[in-house]
Design a protein that fits this description.
The complex is a heterodimer of chains A (184) and B (123).
Chain A: H1 8-16, H2 20-42, H3 45-62, H4 72-90, H5 102-105, H6 114-125, H7 129-140, H8 145-152, H9 156-176, H10 178-183
Chain B: H1 3-10, H2 18-28, H3 45-82, H4 87-92, H5 100-122
Classes of the chains: A mainly alpha (184), B mainly alpha (123).
Chain lengths: 184, 123
Amino acid sequence: MRLWIGSEGKSLELLREGRLEGLHWIYETYSARILNQCYRILLSREQAEDVVQDLFVRLPAIVAEFRGESSLATWLYRVAHNMCLNRLQQGKNRNKLEWENADELAPRGQNASVELTELLSKAMAVLDAETRSLLWLKEGEGVPLKDLSVIFKLPEGTLKSRLSRARDKVKEYLEKESSFEKVA
Amino acid sequence: MKKSLRIFREAERLQPSPALWRRIAAASGLESGPHREGFRPWETPWLRAAAAVLLAAGLIAVAVKGFHSQGRAEQGAELAKATPKPPAQAAVGDSEIIDSELMGWQADLGEVDLEAEAAEEVL
């Protein structure tokens, strides 16, 4: 279901007027991407959906903070990233791995390789939450460095070196996994 | 593409559960505006076009039906003029329309009233 109201600008205008149609357009456009970002940070679908719900419920109130200095997607990624880190800090489970729950770590689906997905979830779990977020947005969502610099409030050079280290860790983990060789 | 990076692209994406939007919409406290600029889900452009075609077809059907019934009425009137009435039917004429007894009663009422008025004048 999608309420067609045209552009992103129009949806923001409607949202600022307190209209549900504006919120719905933004939800339809960005909720899946934000959910996956949150999932990669929190390693839990349930918690990721909680954050997405929280973000969109609060969006009418916080949208005034969006001044168009970046794209709406970039701004939403940043808000989601901060909300996820806050949740981890509140739960005192930052960097906590949830290895024991394999079902939770691997999303279910029909198209993509379940083995690859599960492997990625486990490989990502080796990293800390912020690095998981960074690596997912770069490699999973294809967010350019310029936008990542806005999201993480870090210079591009710093992000590059962090990404390089993160890739090495993931690669190292994957190479240890004999099943990866079979899959890839 | 490197194996370790390919895994990110090929990884499955989660989709928000259908209930998530309903929860958000309920908790947001926002309402749909009175004047929307877009379509509701059931108001697709195709559905609107189909409704317009049906409406036009209905209007044409009503117009055609009206034209035919008017023609039939005119034909009937012309036929009635052209056909001479049988003598028995013609004889009935006005006498059936005006009830002489009823008219007589009305005339009596008028007389009573006149008498009453005359009596009031005397008083």
